[in-house]
Amino acid sequence: MANKSPHDNHSAKTSGKAVKVKRNERKEKQRAATEMERLMHPRRARS
């Protein structure tokens, strides 16, 4: 049976980008998408 200890899962592979950079890019992409959505489908003002 394989050893499924969570401590064995930490490998030394380093990602190309830092976590903060990735998070920043993801948020930027999401922000651009929501901005585009707002431009394409403006909300009607309630009267």
TrEMBL record:
Skewed-composition ranges (Basic and acidic residues): 1-11, 25-40
Disordered: annotated segments: 1-47
UniProt-recorded name of the protein: Uncharacterized protein
